[in-house]
Amino acid sequence: MTPTRVFLFDLDGTLVDSGGAGRRAFEQSWADVLARPHPFDGVPFSGCTDIEILQAGARRDLGRPLDDDELARFLARYLEVLPSMLNDLPPDAVLPGVRPLLDALADRGDCLLGLCTGNIEPGARAKLAPWDLNRYFAFGGFGSDAVDRTQMTGHAIRRARERAAGPVRILVIGDSIRDAVAARGNGVRVALVASGKTPADRLQAQAPDLFFDSLVEWRDVLARFLDTAP
Questions:
Q1: Does residue 221 register a pLDDT over 50?
Q2: Do 185 and 205 share a domain, yes or no?
């Protein structure tokens, strides 16, 4: 049986330049729910899961993680605030080359597209909705599945295998070192794109299976995806 090619895409910095909308929504939600100045200055967001970021801020500010009630109230407020933050973005924040690349992959009968993002799933869907990108991704692994990105990536891989119902060839595509670590932790290949916040030389130092400065030359990217995905 011919393996199904599975492409698992990170979101922020890989598909969309969200312009810090998620960070701003975190900051506003913390102030609204905890009635305290936000603690997220200096907390890394790139490559981290939403709950990981949130609890890092909580430990810094409160000396403890948020409890279940605080966590639920924060996330509910975050999902209320996020759309207004996205309204401040340019008319099309989709990164160059992404749309035609997704179209080309989606048109193939031997490919599956999924998300592999540290955003909680409703937050990821909210970030993709203004640009009609959700239609490409029927499944994925999300920050609402696991705090640890390697475990989260494992959920995306499991769902891909369930959908394929047969052998798969998996490639994770992201813009951070953590994308590489998580892919390797699950024994799958990784393509890194220097379209996010991590400098190209730091990404290349991870020795990814594929590296791109951007996806703008999408035909070349497509050819390399199809030639070298395992």
A1: yes
A2: yes
Let me know whether 68 and 102 are in one domain. no
Distance CA 173, CA 105 (A): 13
Distance CA 190, CA 87 (A): 32
Please tell me whether residues 55 and 113 are part of one structural domain: no
Q: Is 42 helix (H, G, I), strand (E, B) or coil?
A: coil
Q: At what angle do helices 218-228 and 98-106 cross, to 10 degrees?
A: 40
Given a contact cutoff of 8 angstroms between Cβ atoms, the answer to whether 118 and 14 are in contact is no
Q: Is 183 helix (H, G, I), strand (E, B) or coil?
A: helix
The number of domains in the chain is: 2
Mean predicted confidence (pLDDT) in 182-206: 97
Instruction: Enumerate residues 6+ apart whose C-beta is below 8 A from 87.
Output: none
> What per-residue confidence (pLDDT) applies to 227?
84
Please give the backbone phi and psi of residue 114, each rounded to the nearest 5 degrees, phi first.
-140, 165
- Can you list the alpha helix ranges (DSSP code H) found in 120-214? 121-128, 149-164, 177-185, 200-204
Give me the domain span that covers residue 188. 4-18+91-228
Residue 141: name the closest of 174, 112, 117, 113 by CA: 117
63-113 tens-digit pLDDT: 999 999 999 999 999 999 999 999 888 878 999 999 999 999 999 999 999
Q: What is the pTM of this model?
A: 0.95
Element holding 6 (H helix, E strand): strand 4-9
